């Protein structure tokens, strides 16, 4: 059952209900993967993780959940790379992230992950949800644990959609000019992460201090 094919719209109640349920399951899976990656000593990003995050986001909502798109897509005024280029672009992207794992700042690396997945747009649907989750995976694993806070960064980005989309577009424009500049997105990520951590409960062994994990 693919709800979008049955309803023909993302505004149907059944679609929206399952979308929320999928989102909850995606966050549960994301947290489990952060814990598993750290326990196994495998602190890197893989295409398997990215595809699994997409699967949890759009399963039974759209076709090809967890698979790279087999056709062209257009996102508003933005036309992502052709579908036959996606695999090679994702190979290069993941390799680049993992080469910079030890040398790049956590927020800077997570910012790049967030922008590049949106930029490549490798899936039929759920690219934004997948990009935000993958970015947070990188951030948490780099930090050594699940980051505390009442509302996590992926949700805060979604709630600040106009500023978030504008920052992504600024990154796209800079990439087209040949001089990638993700400063606007980095500033937004830093601010929202600060908002998240400010709502974290005090660490039991250090009253008044927040903890990076829970």
Detailed description of the structure:
The protein has a single domain, classed as Fido-like domain (Fic-like fold), CATH 1.10.3290. Helix content is 60%, strand content 3%. It has 9 helices and 2 strands, in the order H-H-H-H-H-H-H-H-H-E-E. Helix 3 packs across helix 6 and helix 4 packs antiparallel against helix 5. The longest helix has 27 residues. It is globular, with a radius of gyration of 17 Å.
Distance between the termini: 37 Å
**Number of helical segments?**
9
Task: Note the main sheet.
Answer: 2 strands, antiparallel
| Helical coverage, percent range | 55-70%
CATH uppermost class: Mainly Alpha
Radius of gyration: 17 Å
Poorly predicted tracts of residues = 206-214
Please tally the β strands and state the result.
2
CATH homolog superfamily: Fido-like domain
Shape call: globular
Total number of distinct structural domains:
1
* Mean pLDDT figure: 93
By CATH, the topology is: Fic-like fold
- The secondary-structure class comes to mainly alpha
What attributes characterize this protein structure?
214 residues; mainly alpha; Fic-like fold; two-stranded antiparallel ribbon
How would you concisely characterize the structure shown here?
The protein has helices spanning 3-7, 13-39, 47-58, 86-99, 106-120, 127-143, 153-159, 161-176, 183-198, and strands spanning 202-203, 206-210. The chain has 214 residues and is mostly helical.
């Amino acid at each position: 059952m693919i709800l979008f094919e049955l309803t023909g719209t993302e505004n149907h109640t059944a679609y929206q209900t399952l979308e929320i349920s999928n989102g909850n399951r995606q966050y549960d899976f994301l947290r489990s993967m952060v814990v598993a990656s750290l326990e196994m000593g495998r602190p890197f990003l893989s295409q398997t993780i990215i595809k699994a995050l997409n699967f949890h986001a759009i399963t039974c909502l759209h076709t090809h959940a967890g698979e790279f798109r087999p056709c062209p897509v257009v996102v508003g005024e933005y036309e992502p790379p052709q579908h036959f280029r996606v695999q090679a672009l994702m190979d290069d992207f993941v390799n680049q992230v993992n080469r910079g794992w030890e040398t790049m700042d956590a927020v800077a690396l997570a910012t790049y992950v967030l922008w590049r997945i949106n930029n490549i747009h490798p899936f039929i649907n759920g690219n934004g949800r997948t990009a935000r989750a993958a970015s947070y995976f990188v951030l948490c694993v780099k930090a050594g644990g699940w980051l505390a806070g009442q509302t996590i960064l992926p949700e805060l980005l979604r709630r600040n959609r106009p500023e978030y989309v504008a920052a992504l577009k600024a990154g796209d424009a800079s990439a087209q000019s040949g001089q990638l500049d993700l400063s606007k997105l980095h500033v937004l990520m830093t601010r929202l992460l600060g908002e998240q951590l400010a709502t974290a409960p005090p660490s039991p062994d250090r009253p008044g201090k927040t903890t990076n994990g829970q």
